[in-house]
Amino acid sequence: MRYLSYWVFPIISGLVWLATLLGLLLHWIVDTHRVIYASMGDGQTIAYISDVGASNLKPLFIVGCCLTTIFLDLSFGADRWLRHRGRLVPNTSTGEKVLSGLTIVFAFIGTIGLTFLSGFDTLRYPRLHDIFLLLFIAGYLISAIFICWEYQRLGHKNRQHRVLRISFWVKLTFVVVELILAIAFIATNFKGQYDKAAILEWVIAFVFSFYVFSFCIDLWPAVATRNARLSTNSARQMEETYYATHPSVLPDVARDTQDSQRTLTDGHRGHHGNGGHHKTRTEQRDF
């Protein structure tokens, strides 16, 4: 349990997302033998994620999307809170704080898109589904751009923290790959090349899981800061308790310090004692 920390949020989010995708994909391939859904276009033989999600597995799709966004948003919130508390490299400039805020804002837009696209399925609400799909892709993509920008600034000023550079390059790779895939997806979809667009959509979704897992890199150092505090306090308490019960084994410096403190305390006590007797004799003369 000592190694459990905020890094579990992106792990849970990523695993839920992968499980949802694999559940939908395997259901379409294995259980239904690549059935043609009513929501699929003319000549389309490969189902979109939303085609499978609009079928009898819609409850799985909704629950999977909601849990994914909940734990991913907790990851964003934990990152911001830990930097504010100083347990992760803090944002020290206004620009970094603005970038962090924009990251969270656009991540929330992506959350709205992913949550609502699962409810407004492509079969019954095709127009709304497309709008929320755009919000999902654009929201998280822009959010990733801002967090890359933030980490680039943090890493430039804190070169001793290699984790910032690693996370920056991982997220930048995600931004570049997803941007290329998103452009190709939109182009093939508008051209009516639905099978190619469907394959690209599945790839985009699976790549997104790696972006979610990348937040483990950001939140993992919080384990070390927590353990460092606990171990320091525990060691100090154990040391004080041991020396209190075994004064004969006090280190020389500690023993000398303790003796000096005892001498000062006795002298201070004696000084007050003499002052008290002098005051009494003076009062007796006054009477």
Would you spell out the secondary-structure blueprint of this structure?
Blueprint: H1 8-31, H2 49-53, H3 58-85, H4 94-119, H5 126-157, H6 162-190, H7 194-213, H8 215-219, H9 221-245, H10 252-286
Helix pairs in contact: 1-3, 1-7, 3-4, 4-5, 5-6, 6-7
- Annotation field: number of helices: 10
**Helicity range of the residues?**
over 70%
Rg result: 31 Å
Order of helices and strands: HHHHHHHHHH
Backbone shape: elongated
Note poorly predicted spans: 228-261, 268-273, 275-287
DSSP E strands, number: 0
Q: Main beta sheet, described? A: none
Strand content: under 5%
State the end-to-end CA separation.
74 Å
* Mean pLDDT over all positions: 81
Total of domains: 2
Helix- and strand-based class?
Answer: mainly alpha
Descriptive labels:
287 residues; mainly alpha; 2 domains; 0% strand
Quick summary of this structure?
Helix content is 80%, strand content 0%. The protein has 287 residues and is mainly alpha-helical. It folds into two domains: 221 residues, no CATH class; 37 residues.
Plain-language structure description:
This protein has 287 residues and is mostly helical. The chain has 2 domains: 221 residues, no CATH class; 37 residues. The protein is 80% helix and 0% strand. The longest helix is centred in the C-terminal third of the chain and has 35 residues. The chain is elongated, with a radius of gyration of 31 Å. The N and C termini lie far apart (74 Å).
